[in-house]
Amino acid sequence: MRAYKGIVRHGKVELAEGVNLPEGAHVTVTVGEAELIRASLAAALRRRTTRRANPIPAYRGRLSRSA
User: Fold this and answer.
1) Position 51 in a domain
2) Distances from the Cα of 65 to the Cαs of 4, 8, 12, 58, 59, in angstroms?
3) Domain of 30?
4) Those residues with Cβ within 8 angstroms of residue 27's Cβ, 6 or more apart along the chain or in another chain
5) Which of 22, 24, 60, 67 is 20 to 30 A from 50 (CA-CA)?
6) What is the DSSP string of 8-52?
7) Could you report the per-residue pLDDT of 14-64, keeping only the tens digit for each?
8) Cα gap 21→7, rounded to integer Å
């Protein structure tokens, strides 16, 4: 068994240049805990959070229709 290092880009593991694995080879990927935490935090910060503020409260609309 050999160990190789790589990086994940677009959901796929890219190994160092020159590493050739046979097609269909079974592999095990181990992620270090520190790297996993760092990647999770970075992904959370990159997420777009859009919040829309409703300028008219819901109860106001109901009151104006009662006339």
Assistant:
1) no
2) 68, 56, 56, 12, 10
3) 1-46
4) 21
5) 60
6) EETTEEEEPTT----TT--------HHHHHHHHHHHHHHS-----
7) 898 888 889 998 988 887 888 888 888 888 888 766 666 767 666 665 665
8) 16
Residue with tokens 């181990």: 30
34: in domain: yes
pLDDT of residue 23: 92
CA distance 58 to 23: 59
Nearest-5° angle of CA 56, CA 61, CA 66?
160
Instruction: Count up the domains in the chain and report the number.
Output: 1
Which of 28 and 1 is assigned the larger pLDDT? Answer: 28
The answer to the question of residue 58 being in a domain is no
Please tell me the predicted confidence (pLDDT) of residue 37. 87
pTM of the model: 0.42
